[in-house]
Every structure is written in C-alpha cells, then in structure tokens.
Design a protein that fits this description.
about 325 residues; alpha+beta; nine-stranded mixed β-sheet
Length: about 325
C-alpha cells in the first residue's frame, strides 16, 4: 500500500502577481465521458523541494485565474493510519501557509485542505472495514477513538464510489482517496477548485459586509443631491464588482458534467457549505439592490423638483418679459 499526502493553502492575491508560467490542463482518465478537461486551467509558477519533519516534500505554487494562488505540498507517507500522520499533515500545511503569507497582496483569509491518496492496496473492502474508524479520523483530523455509530454515519454520508475498487471519503478538513494513481490528479483538482470557490464566497461576504458598513456611513450624512450621487455610484460599483466575481464562481460550478465528477463536486461543496455562503452573498446583493432602488428614486425626485423649478422660473421669466 502506498500513500501520498497532499496539503494546500488557497489565498487571493487581487490580480497583483506575475502569473507567467506553464499552463496545465487536468484530463480525465475514466472511461465515462469526462468533463474535467474544462476545469479551470492553472499555471505553475514555481516548484521546489524542502525537508519537512525529516521527510522530503515537493512544493508547487499554482495560479488560478483571475486572482487565486494555491501553495501545494506533497510527500510520501509510509502508513496513513499511523497515529503521528496528523502531526505530519500539520507540518506540511504549516509550510504551505508560510509560503502563502510571503506572497505580495495575499489575503488574510485563506483555505487549507489535505488529501490522503492511497493506492497499491488489495481487497479494498477488507482494508476499509478494518480501518474505518481511522479513515474517518483522518477525514476529521481526529485520531481519538470514536463511537462506532458516529463512524458508520460519517462514512455513509461522506463516501463516494466509482467502481468496486475505489473510494473517496470527503470531509470539511481533509479527504481520503483510495484509487488508481492515474485518477488522483482529477480528484485533487476538483477538491482544489471547490476550496477556491469557498474562499471566493467567504471573501465576497466579507467585502460586501464592509461595503454595507461604508454605505451606512454615507447614508447617515445629510442626503443632499451630491451625497446621494456619491452613494449611488458607490452602490453601482460594489454591485458590479460583486456580480463579476459571482459569475466567475458560478462558471466553475457549471463545469462538471459526468456523473462521478458532478457527485464528487457536490459532495465537496456540501461539506464546505458553499451553498450557504452563497445564500449570504445573495442576501447582501439583494440589500444593495434595495438601497440602489431607494437612492435612484430619491435622485429622480431631485431631478423632477429641479425640472419643476426650472419650468416655474421659465414661466415667471415669460410673464416678466411680457410687461417689459
């Protein structure tokens, strides 16, 4: 049995990074029609080696359009069910995060994730039955013994199979994948993009929350015409930026077509609660829409008032002109 541990950290760099590098496209190796070829392409910016906890690790810096960086580290693990493997994972994530924080303009908000890719096993059902508690422990980064009912429930709700000899167990913090090594890149890419979408959803929520606070400050001023125009322009700018980002996230959501990648993506996004995050974005955008309508009506009222004043002055001018 072989195991490679992948850990990565995702940060946003605000399109302020030199992203020239080798473009990579992930391809599906499954027999069913694969749509993973249209996953977002990424560019490899750098690759380097480093010793982590006495083991050789390979790190890769990847750029995803338009403004996300993934720092990925990988190393071979002799026994994924060893009690010390979580300490190894923690070290690998720590190094990825350290490199991510060195990037210029990297966001303070980030996502981290780990994937245990296991291959070269025999009799998968027996292996899973013997280590089901440890598998759920890896998925939850918890090595303390858990209640058998908790383990069974978690395994049932977090698992996905493509054939009789593979298994993907996906959680919020980590995933455990039993499969052929050729299929790992596809699975890793889907989980990576899902984490990118989660980060974007979180950042959008934070940006919109900050924008609502700023808008609240603008609205507390005396609402004269120029204050209204400033607030309206601000709302228009924020809504436009948010909708562009939202569209980018939805484009990724609609990329998965074959049943396995669609279900894997759905399982991951369910565990990451992306739908709930996006509902928060919807609610904030609706608030901006309401404010936009209110400001537009107020500005239209100013226009009408000015028009009426202008008409009145014109009439007065004509009356005065008639006498002189």
């Amino acid at each position: 049995m072989k195991c490679t541990l992948y850990s990565f950290v995702v940060v946003d760099v605000g399109r302020k990074v030199d992203h020239s590098g080798k473009e990579v496209t992930t391809k599906s190796v499954r027999s069913a029609p694969g749509y993973v070829e249209i996953l977002p392409k990424h560019r490899v910016l750098d690759t380097f080696h480093k010793t982590v906890a006495g083991k050789k690790a390979v790190f890769m810096i990847k750029f995803y359009d338009p403004d996300d960086i993934v720092v990925e580290g990988r190393m071979d693990v002799k026994n994924p069910f060893d009690p010390h493997v979580l300490e190894l994972k923690k070290e690998l994530v720590s190094h990825c995060l350290a490199y991510a924080r060195k990037l210029d303009h990297a966001s303070d908000v980030y996502e981290e994730y780990s994937i245990y890719c296991i291959s070269g096993y025999a009799k998968l059902n027996s292996l899973v039955a013997k280590n089901r508690g440890k598998i759920i422990g890896l998925m939850r980064s918890e090595m303390e013994p858990m209640d058998p009912i908790v383990v069974e429930t978690a395994l049932r709700e977090s698992s996905l199979k493509y054939s009789s000899d593979d298994l993907a167990v996906v959680g919020w913090d980590s995933a455990v994948i039993f499969s052929d090594p050729d299929e790992f890149p596809e699975i890793i890419e889907i989980l990576t993009v899902s984490n990118i979408e989660l980060l974007n959803a979180r950042l959008m929520n934070e940006e919109l929350e900050d924008s609502l606070l700023k808008l609240s400050t603008l609205m507390k001023k005396r609402l004269r015409y120029f204050n209204l125009k400033e607030a309206l322009d601000y709302v228009l700018h924020i809504r436009t930026e948010a909708l562009f980002k939202f569209d980018h996230i939805k484009r990724n959501i609609n990329r998965y077509g074959d049943w396995y990648t669609a279900k894997l993506y759905g399982l991951a996004t369910d565990k990451f609660h992306i739908a709930e995050k996006m509902q928060e974005v919807y609610r904030k955008l609706d608030t901006f829409e309401d404010v936009y309508q209110m400001l537009s009506e107020q500005i239209n009222w100013y226009y009408l008032m000015l028009l009426e004043v202008g008409i009145f002055l014109l009439i007065v001018w004509e009356v005065v002109a008639a006498f002189f």
